[in-house]
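Reopening: structure tokens for the nicotinamide-adenine-dinucleotide complex, inputs below.
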Amino acid sequence: MKKIKLGIVGCGGIFKYAHLPAYKKMQNVEIVALCDIVEAKMEDPEFPPDAHRYTAWQDLINDPEVEAVDICAPNYLHSVVGVAALKKGLHVFTEKPDAISVSEMQKLIDAEKESGKVYMAMRNNRHLNVSKFFKQYIDEGKAGELYCGRCGIIRRRGIPGKGGWFTTKAQSGGGPLVDLGVHMIDLAVYFMGNPKAVSVSGCVYNKFANSDISDSVNSKFGEKKDDGIFDVEDLAMGFIRFENGACLQIEFSWASNIEKETAFLELRGEKAGLKFSYIPEDNRIYTEECGRLVDIAPRIPEPDGGHGQNLVHFIDVIQGNAKPDFTSEQGLNEMKILQAIYESAETGKEVIL
Ligand SMILES: NC(=O)c1ccc[n+]([C@@H]2O[C@H](COP(=O)([O-])OP(=O)(O)OC[C@H]3O[C@@H](n4cnc5c(N)ncnc54)[C@H](O)[C@@H]3O)[C@@H](O)[C@H]2O)c1
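Re-run output (same inputs, fresh job):
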């Protein structure tokens, strides 16, 4: 079986704990090059010993062995490296968010179209087994029209890498809306059939930049920097209307004074309501059967998680064995929503897209 030769840009947490374990299980991939701006990050004994090591991503995309790039670097680099790699004729996978602004997203779309190569961004929620089940349930018409929903990831304390790139707007593009919101907003919109957003209203807050107890076990990612920057929100609230009349309420926080940390997505359909959860036994369908209200609890194991399955899908698409479940236009729609929430928060008005 032909192996796709991969180069990795950014060898931090998500590469080590999610991407690398997935690639190790795949027979049709070989990591031939690694890049991290910090040389020591590439010395991990678990990393492929024979892969070329680079500290500049420009050198990695010029490596003649590399056919595809997986970008696991801070958010602002996703479009910068992605566009350059597509222009070199490489396939590109990037971690989420797809880009840090609508204009950067547009550059990716233009480069994708010009290159004809595969471009894909991480949608790990879509690739969970339970999401595939919900999607089939919806596509078979069992939920009826999905006309509204609410989703959120609300941490009591869980700011990633406080002071580092996660909390620096120029490098991250935003706080929990960008970091966590992309996961649930994408899944909600995907389940709803990818309707176009037409108007957005939002508020964002930054109340925990100076708190000493802002970190928690719920922030496994990023490295703290004591004298660093914190110019992004720690809470984002919003309301999105779609062209088909559907709506979605959203709420994402890294820090909030609440009882319990939650991650949820609820969609209301005419025939059934759906509750998606990361806790497998909490997933539910609320409907009627034989004149009674019934709650259905799907029993679906998640042995590998969504990240690995998304990477398998990326390689399958490159090899022509699968049709992409992701389009960059969906990414653009999502990026417009995120940007409009910040714009609405700043102007105090609803933003028409
Ligand atoms: N899908 C998910 O569930 C998920 C979870 C966590 C993080 N992420 C995403 O993954 C990406 C990385 O996050 P992380 O948690 O691994 O962060 P991290 O800070 O642990 O790792 C980022 C790595 O990129 C390196 N880097 C920085 N600038 C670079 C440059 N110019 N060239 C090459 N390398 C550079 C850093 O040295 C670091 O090793 C982010 O975009 C984040 O949003 C996704």
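The two ends are 46 Å apart (CA to CA). The mean pLDDT is 95. Marking as resolved unless the reporter disagrees.
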